[in-house]
Design goal:
The chain folds into three domains: about 230 residues, 3-Layer(aba) Sandwich (Rossmann fold), CATH 3.40.50; about 80 residues, Phosphorylase Kinase, domain 1 (2-Layer Sandwich); about 210 residues, Aminoglycoside 3'-phosphotransferase, Chain: A, domain 2 (Alpha-Beta Complex), CATH 3.90.1200. Helix content is about 45%, strand content about 20%. It has 20 helices and 17 strands. The termini are far apart.
Length: about 575
């Protein structure tokens, strides 16, 4: 089974952590599943049955909402994270594919979590899933809720079986053709649930969880298979009445100023926020779409607020990006949950791009960015206060993670030289996007011209110039599969060794903004530090390994370069 290694790795990792850090791990697992609280109507005293093929992360996420959770495990040898972290989860070992060991009408909610994993190895046949669904209905109270989730792991298993079929000899192909069809996705499963009598259903598409590249390579499909990954889905069904979740109340009350919200099309989540895409029919009869951000942590709420502030600031300025950024439609708090609503710019993103198409988008984005920064640039005299404001976010985030006196001294030396180099210099500061890359460009589906720039939650004004442009080019290299961020930075950006066309764009940008050649090296170093600080939030589970493999080699190279230039 392809996910056994990931599960074992989680267990090994947990066992090596001090208690406080292990609890932080569990807390983050809960945050990953926090979308549950928006989708289900939790009531005091409820009991929930969870059929889960993993280590119990969904049960842990739900444990704070239910009085009792029964976690059904198919394999007694499967390690479980629930032990020791919460006292209201009971683990029962029983087959998912036989009669459940419970009487009728026992549970207020039954969850089949991640059916791609639950039915792995059993061809994911319709008959197998239907048997489990019927058993779930039997033990569910008449007014209870059935939840079924799945994600693109099921597609991965289907692709693997398809490749096995294509490589099989003729007699084996004949046998494989006789197998029942796999359960393929949301519409198929929803039809089965409807036919069982669950007439009230809410359907959600959720953020795809891409298969790790090494797993894709293992089946020989290559990187291109990732563009086929279908979104994960969740189906919430009841027999007697429509589910009364947070989202239903939220859409009726908070989004009422948009008009009549017809349907919530998607819900997508990352570890610290949930994003809804809604379509509303206004009283004038005009349809309007909007993005609703629901931050789950203080950090995420701060970022969302920063994005709103940036959009409101840009709406009051006449720049080349006027008309290309979303407008703020509202923000506030509903049931203790902050929310931020902005308009949805129609178009598409450049998913799994070809080099030529991506190149056109990047060139247009670079041209827009140059004009935008030229319009927003303000000369700033760099004194100690300004330098501290520019550098302190990087230093405060990175320095605590640097181990070893030599590495700490090297980092301190770099910052001291940068301070000496810039004190007393006048440098143009600009309105920075903070995450300026092709994925955040909304394109015209026909012409691929940019008609929107989104995700301003990492923006800063004023900020250092050139960083957005460098990130645009570097991220394009990662999109084309030419290496990780750190490898590309070492190979092409420190020092700059880009193609003539890209170097010409950078030279034109520097002339337009007023950046001298002496400022290029410090800006390259701050570009690296800016994105190191950002990535430290995302690599926490393998932080020591990432620091050894990615951070320290670049730190050494930067230190040697800075020391060599100073000596010269």
């Amino acid at each position: 089974m392809t996910h056994a290694y990931e599960r074992d790795k989680d267990i090994v990792y947990l066992n090596t952590l001090p208690l406080d850090e292990a609890r932080q791990f569990i807390a983050r697992e809960r945050v990953k599943q926090a979308a549950w609280k928006f989708l289900l109507d939790f009531q005091p005293g409820q009991r929930c049955l969870v059929l889960e093929g993993g280590v119990g992360s969904a049960s842990i996420a739900l444990s704070e909402h239910y009085q009792e959770i029964v976690l059904l495990q198919n394999n007694p040898s499967t390690p479980c994270l629930t032990q020791g972290w919460t006292n209201n989860i009971t683990v029962v070992c029983s087959s998912f594919f036989a009669a459940l060991p419970f009487t009728e009408s026992t549970f207020d909610c039954v969850i089949l979590h991640d059916i791609g994993t639950l039915f792995a190895g059993r061809n994911e046949t319709e008959a197998t899933l239907l048997q489990s669904l019927l058993e779930a209905k039997r033990v569910l109270k008449s007014e209870g809720t059935l939840v079924v989730t799945g994600d693109n792991k099921s597609l991965f298993l289907w692709l693997r079986s398809k490749l096995k079929y294509l490589k099989a000899p003729a007699d084996e192909k004949k046998r494989l053709r006789g197998l029942p069809p796999p359960v393929t996705g949301l519409s198929h499963v929803d039809t089965m649930i409807r036919d069982m009598g669950f007439q009230h259903r809410s359907l959600f598409s959720m953020t795809p969880r891409l298969i790790p590249f090494q797993e894709v390579s293992r089946i020989g499909a290559g990187r291109a298979v990732q563009k086929w990954m279908r979104p994960a889905f969740m189906i919430i069904a009841t027999q007697k009445s429509a589910p009364d979740s947070f989202l239903n109340r939220f859409s009726k009350i908070v989004l009422s100023h948009l008009g009549d919200v017809e349907i919530i099309r998607y819900i997508s989540g990352n570890p610290d926020s949930v994003i809804l895409i809604v379509r509303a029919e206004q009283r004038s009869g005009v349809e309007r779409s909007a993005i609703v951000r629901l931050p789950l942590t203080k950090t995420s709420a701060t970022r969302c607020q920063r994005g709103v502030d940036a959009l409101q600031t840009l709406s009051g300025r006449r720049t080349v990006l006027s008309g290309l950024v979303p407008s703020v439609l509202g923000h506030g708090v509903f049931c203790d949950q902050p929310y931020f609503i902005e308009s949805l710019i129609p178009g598409r993103v450049i998913a799994s791009p070809q080099p030529a198409a991506l190149g056109r988008v990047v060139r247009e984005a670079a041209s827009l960015l140059t004009l935008f920064h030229q319009e927003t640039a303000q000369p700033c005299f760099i004194d100690r206060t300004v330098f501290s404001r520019i550098s302190s976010p990087f230093i405060s985030t990175i320095l605590p993670h640097i181990k070893g006196s030599d590495a700490q001294k090297s980092f301190g030396y770099i910052m001291d030289v940068m301070r000496e180099r810039w004190l007393g210099v006048t440098l143009p500061l600009v309105f920075s996007h903070g995450d300026f890359q092709a994925d955040n460009m909304i394109l015209n589906p026909d012409t691929l011209r940019i008609q929107g720039v989104i995700d301003w939650d990492l923006s800063n004004d004023p900020a250092l110039p050139l960083l957005d442009l460098l990130y645009l080019f570097l991220y394009a290299e990662t999109m084309l599969g030419r290496g990780h961020f750190e490898d590309i930075f070492m190979r092409q950006f420190f020092p700059l060794r880009l193609d003539n066309g890209t170097m010409t764009v950078i030279d034109n940008y520097c002339r337009a903004i007023g950046i001298s050649s002496d400022d290029i090296l410090p800006l390259l170093i701050f570009f690296w530090l800016h994105h190191v600080a950002f990535r430290l939030e995302r690599v926490w589970r393998q932080l020591d390994r990432w620091m050894d493999q990615s951070f320290y080699p670049i730190l050494l190279k930067v230190y040697e370069t800075v020391r060599g230039e100073k000596a010269a």
